[in-house]
Specification:
globular; 6-stranded antiparallel sheet; Aminoglycoside 3'-phosphotransferase, Chain: A, domain 2; alpha+beta; Phosphorylase Kinase, domain 1
């Protein structure tokens, strides 16, 4: 499926409509000089928190992210946490949209939401960056790495995020959390998931590290300048927390391990001809920039299996919302149906490590 189907905006879906007059009244109390809304559109991309583009009468543009309607899984769709991390990071070496206001009063539009400034720029869905020159491709990949290194080396305590998560035991806590969420949204038995649910917690690598992690650091969650290979903002911080940097980095590097079909990937492509770094070179650059000696192969493979497991859990949650009629995206069913193949790919990573 082409990224164009997820790019841009569309009219607000019927099931996502809300009281626009109530929103206008609220925004008048929060935004100096705000008078009224000229237009509200819904972004096509995103499976989790419905996201909307608002245009004011004066031409100013804003982005609204809200919790979806319906019964939600515990701790999911935490837009208040997103707003908190945007507030902490705004103005730092990690570029983010400007946070404007958080509304925790469900009576305004039916669910909690927050507002941020609209960042105009380029959003890529295809990691081969069609249409870009090789030199620009190289620079964009360097920029992605630069921002992730800035995130993982940020003094999160000084930024006011010392209590944004629990330091230590990150993999154990995350596996337990995602396992619970998976069970809460399970719609069918998936054999590969059953194996992963048993194997992952029993094979967590030794060693603890804690940094601020994004949780979904991928190309389509980044906005680049229209004129140069410079990142203007990282968006979709829903899964951010204090965690293990290798969980975050390996999720990002899964791009090199998968081909077209699972997610948009780089597997089996002639990267040198595209100006895109090889996985080994990219990982080495990350290690140099963060002062890490290297990454043990068994740790790296565990991280890959863990991240695919997590994606399978997320997709299972989407399928549950599809069946309940509360899924945010028009492509939700297709994403939800990929829970099984994603789980099977994750177990393949384990089997390769075990020499099966």
């Amino acid at each position: 499926m082409s990224g164009e189907e997820f790019t841009g905006t569309m009219p607000v879906a019927e099931r996502q409509r809300f009281d626009e007059a109530a929103l206008e009244r609220y925004l008048r109390t929060q935004l100096p000089g705000f008078e009224r809304l000229l237009e509200i559109e819904q972004f096509r991309g995103g499976q989790s928190n419905p996201t909307f583009l608002l245009t004011g009468a004066d031409g100013a543009r804003y982005v609204l992210r809200r919790k979806p309607a319906g019964t939600l899984l515990p701790s999911a769709h935490a837009v208040d946490r997103e707003f908190r991390v945007l507030t902490a990071l705004y103005g730092s070496a990690v570029p983010v949209p400007k946070p404007l206001c958080l509304c925790t009063d469900d009576s305004v539009i039916g669910t909690m939401f927050y507002l941020m400034g609209h960042v105009a720029g380029r959003n890529f869905w295809d990691p081969t960056l069609p249409g870009a020159a090789n030199v620009e491709r190289t620079a964009i990949y360097q920029e992605m790495l630069r921002v992730l290194v800035a995130l993982h080396t940020l003094d999160y305590t000084a930024a006011g995020l010392g209590d944004y998560g629990k330091p230590g035991n990150y993999f154990a806590r995350q596996i337990a959390r995602w396992s619970k969420q998976y069970r809460s949204s399970e719609t069918e038995r998936i054999e590969a998931m059953e194996k992963l649910l048993a194997w992952l917690p029993a094979n967590i690598p030794e060693g603890e590290e804690t940094t601020l992690v994004h949780g979904d650091y991928r190309l389509d969650n980044m906005i680049f300048s229209a004129r140069e290979p410079r990142m203007l903002a990282v968006v979709d911080w829903e899964l951010s927390t204090l965690g293990h940097p290798l969980a975050d980095f390996s999720y990002h590097v899964m791009l090199w391990r998968v081909g077209e079909g699972e997610i948009r990937g780089l597997k089996n492509l002639d990267l040198a001809a595209l100006g895109i770094p090889e996985e080994a070179a990219y990982v080495a650059a990350y290690c140099r920039s963060t002062g890490r000696a290297g990454i043990e192969p068994e740790v790296w493979d565990f991280c890959m299996a863990y991240n695919l497991f997590r994606i399978a859990c997320i997709r299972q949650g989407i399928m549950k919302r599809v069946l309940e009629g509360t899924a945010a995206s028009r492509h939700a069913r297709e994403a939800g149906e990929r829970a099984r193949p994603t789980a099977e790919l994750a177990w393949q990573q384990v089997e390769q490590r075990l020499g099966a």
